[in-house]
From TrEMBL:
GO cellular component: cell outer membrane
Keywords: Cell outer membrane, Membrane, Signal
Source taxonomy: Bacteria, Pseudomonadati, Bacteroidota, Sphingobacteriia, Sphingobacteriales
Residue intervals of the RagB/SusD domain: 353-516
Record-linked Pfam families: SusD-like_3, SusD_RagB
Organism the protein comes from: Sphingobacterium siyangense
Keyword Repeat: no
Protein name per Swiss-Prot or TrEMBL: Outer membrane starch-binding protein
Keyword Transmembrane helix (UniProt): no
Transmembrane segments: none
Subcellular localization: Cell outer membrane
Domain annotation SusD-like N-terminal: ranges: 24-235
């Protein structure tokens, strides 16, 4: 692992916050002002270390290579593009094509980069957790000490949740900055052991975090009790030894808790860039438009800036994550125009698309993922939801149905369907409802980093991907070829990424996943 190489050099995302302070929330002071001589002795220093931990969601810089590729956009590559929701598209880069077509190797650069970035984020959390009790500053309150421990524990749990879903059982690095080779050469834990560790971190978080910090612009970007309970809901659903009683317990803690979460009346409002810090958000990444250090460059890889006529400029280049025909048909088959129109927009483009428009016909439009609609020249201010209420409500319905309360599950899922303008369900069997909930999650949460996880949790990934009827074409002198069916050749080994080759070479204690 490379987490010992990371230092807290990131531009701070979050200000050192006293609860009664009016200080501007976003503070750009670097964490590198903490030195070995004064490290973590003052409240200000530990706050800066926590800032660095939060900054793992953003990185620093307006282009790739800013140590936040995973949360800026590669999380969507690993979930929606890897699944049946989208194609890699872009320039045909081999690393992304491997993710799309299930031909991944252990030298894939994105596979390596995501591992490294997530462990780097964990390293920052470890520094906070290991040092918060060492602060001797008399002005540093015990209340704030507990909150910081809770925040860092939540963040560490969130990053480990990403790792275990991607790679399976991974080494549990609980401390950082060690030079001891034995400490660095940690063996892989089992999947269940990783989930147990995530659960323990989230229990610490839930016991030490408040329901809120007093204002939405803070409550929605920092870890809270509601965020801890929401992630507990998800881990107990996702782990292989899932416990739907706990899923229901934690989902209800979110839904009826003191966080005050409520669905927005209009689905499209969630993604129009005008409703940040809304009541449905549990925790989001608060990008700032035009900021060289706090904006989102990742969204521009999915959707470009539009010209003065609201069209794609003729000089634009091909974007990534082209929605699949299967996803578009899923919206159309459900009559779900509201969520389709909020999530997918069609445009004429100045390039050929082998799935939608292989001969580049100017009158044929192709779809775009527009969950983030304002690219702003790689400096978008569109926020990204890490957790939101609709996800938790749908997991509650899943748990109710699995526990035999099918009528209750129908009532719960109808809450989500009603918001989307769809008719209420009634008289549905438990087995039929299970499939309906999976599809409902697809329509509700497309391009939010959920689809791959849902398919795996339902145990249907291999079947869904091998039966996927996605076709592509070529073009010869303006004439479209006959369709070619894409063969994904999935098996159970395809569910996990390989352990990166460089990590295997650096840590002899690691073992490779089957099939690689």
């Amino acid at each position: 692992m490379k987490s010992n190489r990371y230092t807290s050099l990131a531009i701070a995302l979050l200000a050192s916050l006293a609860l009664n302070s009016c200080k501007k929330f976003l503070d750009l002071q670097p964490t590198s002002t903490v030195t070995s001589e004064n490290a973590y002795l003052t409240g200000d220093n530990i706050e800066k270390a926590l800032n660095g931990a939060y900054n793992s969601f953003i990185g620093n810089g307006t282009r790739p290579g800013s140590n936040a590729n995973y949360y800026q956009w590669e999380m969507i590559l690993q979930t929606d593009i890897r699944s049946d929701n989208a194609h890699a598209a872009g320039g045909g880069e081999i690393d992304f094509a491997q993710i799309d077509y299930n031909t991944i190797t252990n030298t894939n650069e994105m596979v390596r980069r995501d591992w490294e970035e997530l462990y780097g984020a964990i390293s920052k959390c470890n520094i906070v957790i290991d040092n918060v009790d060492k602060v001797t500053d008399p002005t540093f309150s015990d209340e704030r000490r507990k909150q910081i421990l809770g925040e860092a524990s939540f963040l560490r749990a969130f990053h480990y949740y990403q790792l275990v879903k991607l790679y399976g059982g991974v080494p549990l690095e609980k401390h950082s900055n060690s030079t001891d080779a034995e400490v660095l050469r940690i063996k892989r834990s089992t999947v269940e052991e990783v989930y147990d560790f995530i659960d323990s971190d989230l229990q610490v978080a839930a016991n030490n975090l408040p329901d809120g910090f007093g204002q939405p612009s803070i409550d929605k970007v920092r870890a809270t009790k509601g965020a801890a309970n929401a992630l507990l809901t998800k881990i107990w659903a996702q782990r292989p030894d899932r416990d739907y009683n706990k899923v229901l317990q934690y989902a209800n803690a979110v839904i009826t808790g003191k966080g005050g979460y409520q669905l927005l009346q209009n689905y499209a409002d969630l993604f129009d860039g005008k409703h940040n810090y809304n009541s449905e958000s549990i925790i989001e990444i608060p990008y700032i438009a035009g900021s060289p250090n706090l904006s989102c460059w990742g969204g521009a890889f999915f959707f470009p800036d539009l010209d003065e006529n609201g069209q794609i400029n003729e000089n634009e280049w091909r974007r990534y994550g082209t929605p699949s025909k299967d996803l578009v048909e899923a919206y159309d088959n459900a009559g779900d125009t509201e969520r389709k129109n909020a999530n997918i927009w069609f445009f004429s483009v100045p390039w050929a698309d082998e799935f939608w428009n292989p001969c580049g016909d100017a009158d044929t439009e192709i779809p775009f993922n527009v969950k983030q609609k304002h690219a702003n020249s790689f400096q978008s201010g569109d926020h990204f939801y890490l957790l939101r209420l609709a996800d938790i409500i749908l997991l509650k319905a899943e748990a109710q149905n699995a526990l035999g309360n099918t009528s209750g599950a129908i009532n719960t899922i109808n809450i989500i369907r009603h918001r989307a303008g769809l008719s209420d369900l009634s008289g549905v069997s438990s087995s039929a409802l299970k499939a309906i909930i999976l599809n409902e999650r697809r329509l509700e949460l497309a391009f939010e980093g959920q689809r791959w996880d849902d398919l795996n949790r339902y145990g249907v990934t291999v079947d869904v991907m091998n039966k996927l009827n996605e076709i592509k074409f070529t073009c010869d002198n303006g004439k479209q070829s006959n369709p070619t069916l894409i063969k994904y050749n999935f098996n159970q080994n395809s569910l996990l990424l390989p352990i990166p080759l460089l990590e295997l070479q650096a840590n002899p204690s690691l073992t490779q996943n089957p099939g690689y």
